[in-house]
């Protein structure tokens, strides 16, 4: 019996475990997931908790409930991987052997990496919404905040769900209008990027939306430190942005055990082949979801599309055959813009987000890079799809590879000229 060990029972780890359990013979492969607790968080819901759209109890369910009964679940903290011995050491002293290892431990916000973030003002005038506790605390703060200068700041890329900070700024505008205090709020979006997004066509759409909503943008801002006493952000080029309430997206880093095992880069992300997700250093190690360094968004859709390809490759790998499938970097994201509307983007390694219709050319029903009510409803509907289709590893009628059908490909030439 061979052992497939999956480190992390979040989105990527759970989908991979459920899909592979169906494809690998039970008399030849045992599948085990390791995570520290039974709390599976619906992370897209963290964005909505501060605005009261979701209650905190709506974003947490049992991890065990969404794993196949034939998948073992071990509750423990991971200390390190010993690749030369093909074992994983746990905090309770156990050593789990593996024949193949999947690292799906994601990334977490690390406010400790930026001077001035952690301290007495953390959770008071400085908040984040990328964790369960952070989103709940921010909900309390926003419910009574009287107004002033609210700054949304991204410290460094890459981050998981890179459009979420933009969504927060858009939803904050809508929230304060509904509270009747928008005229008392100054919204500023601070980013290390040259603009609201890295690709020109989408950046233009997002930039005009920010402008229309009266949200100022501070681009190319490389945050050096936060001065909580003066309530200012300070960049490496000595620019300063004042705030009364700071909503920050700290540096995102992979798990500490990745660093302790010598498997990661400076952000504890596992370097992998971007098409097969196989470790560049150890052929029996793979990294899925946010835990790897592939050059695309760290988003749930990427995990879903990548795992569809990965499963086919791993079945070949498990039988000693060459892996013949290639992931194209496909990502698909709804972007809340407030007032019950949202945008939708669809892209991959080689093609930036384009306007058009999705998923059926000419019919949609979704519009790309356009604010619509249907896109907003699609984002809300994704919660049901997540728990009932994606996480259990059931098929979703969307191809893993990105399609150009329905997209305005003529704009690519214009954007590059």
Can you put this structure into words, describing what you see?
The protein is an alpha/beta fold. The protein folds into 3 domains: 2-52 and 60-106 and 255-318, FAD/NAD(P)-binding domain; 109-251, FAD/NAD(P)-binding domain, CATH 3.50.50; 331-416, no CATH class. It contains 8 helices and 24 strands. The protein has helices at 11-23, 132-144, 164-179, 200-212, 256-260, 300-318, 373-390, 410-416, and strands spanning 2-7, 29-35, 39-41, 60-62, 72-75, 78-82, 87-90, 95-97, 100-103, 107-110, 126-127, 148-154, 185-190, 216-218, 223-227, 232-235, 240-242, 245-249, 251-254, 285-287, 331-338, 341-347, 356-360, 364-368. It has a 5-stranded parallel β-sheet, with helices on one face. Strands 11-18-12-13-14 form a 5-stranded parallel β-sheet. α1 packs parallel to α6 (300-318). The longest helix has 19 residues, at 300-318. The radius of gyration is 21 Å and the shape is globular. The protein starts with a strand and ends with a helix. The model has no long low-confidence stretch (mean pLDDT 95).
């Amino acid at each position: 019996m061979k052992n497939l060990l999956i480190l992390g029972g979040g989105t990527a780890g759970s989908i991979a475990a459920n899909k592979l359990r169906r494809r690998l013979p039970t008399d030849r492969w045992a599948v085990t997931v390791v995570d520290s607790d039974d709390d599976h968080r619906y992370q897209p819901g963290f964005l909505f908790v501060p605005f009261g759209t979701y209650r905190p109890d709506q974003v947490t369910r049992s991890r065990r409930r969404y794993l196949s009964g034939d998948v073992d679940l071990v509750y423990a903290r991971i200390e390190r991987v010993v690749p030369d011995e093909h074992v994983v050491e746990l905090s309770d002293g156990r050593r789990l052997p593996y024949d193949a290892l999947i690292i799906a431990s994601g990334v977490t916000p690390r406010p400790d990496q930026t001077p001035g973030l952690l301290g007495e003002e953390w959770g008071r005038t400085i908040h984040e919404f990328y964790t369960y506790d952070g989103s709940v605390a921010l909900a309390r703060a926003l419910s009574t905040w009287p107004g002033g200068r609210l700054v949304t700041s991204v410290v460094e890329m890459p981050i998981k769900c890179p459009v979420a900070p933009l969504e927060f700024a858009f939803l904050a505008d809508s929230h304060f209008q509904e509270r009747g205090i928008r005229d008392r709020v100054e919204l500023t979006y601070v980013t290390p990027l040259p603009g609201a997004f890295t690709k020109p066509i989408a950046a233009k759409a997002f930039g005009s939306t920010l402008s229309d909503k009266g949200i100022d943008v501070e681009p190319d801002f490389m945050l050096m430190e936060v001065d909580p006493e003066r309530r200012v952000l300070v960049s490496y080029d000595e620019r300063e942005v004042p705030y009364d309430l700071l909503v920050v997206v700290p540096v995102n880093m992979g798990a500490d055990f990745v660093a302790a095992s010598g498997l990661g880069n400076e952000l504890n992300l596992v370097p992998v082949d971007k098409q097969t997700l196989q470790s560049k250093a150890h052929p029996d190690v793979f990294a899925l979801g946010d835990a790897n360094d592939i050059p695309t968004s760290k988003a749930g859709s990427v995990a879903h599309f990548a795992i569809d390809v990965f499963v086919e490759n791993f079945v070949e790998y498990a039988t000693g055959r060459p892996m013949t499938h290639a992931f194209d970097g496909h990502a698909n994201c709804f972007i809340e813009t407030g007032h019950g509307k949202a945008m939708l983007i669809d892209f991959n390694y080689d093609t930036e987000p384009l306007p058009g219709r999705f998923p059926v050319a000419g019919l949609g029903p979704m519009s790309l890079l356009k604010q619509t009510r249907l896109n907003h409803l699609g984002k809300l509907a994704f919660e049901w799809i997540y728990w009932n289709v994606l996480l259990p590893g059931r098929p979703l009628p969307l191809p893993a590879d990105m399609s150009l059908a329905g997209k305005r490909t003529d704009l690519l030439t214009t954007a590059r000229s």
